[in-house]
Amino acid sequence: MSGHPCIRGMRVTVSNILRLLANHHNYQRILDAYPYLEAADIDACLQYAALLADSREIEMVA
Description:
Oligomer: single chain
Shape: elongated
Helix content: 40-55%
Distance between the termini: 35 Å
């Protein structure tokens, strides 16, 4: 998937699931669209997003 983070090695990107959540899709609607996912997969996407939001980039000047 072009280097994008995926759910458990499937061809479903974390960003796609986060985009669905941001557009007010609930867990059940997502799970209906992707029956091979589990609620824990969606939780993991949110945890990953929280981790990224906490990370900081520090620019090093030579």
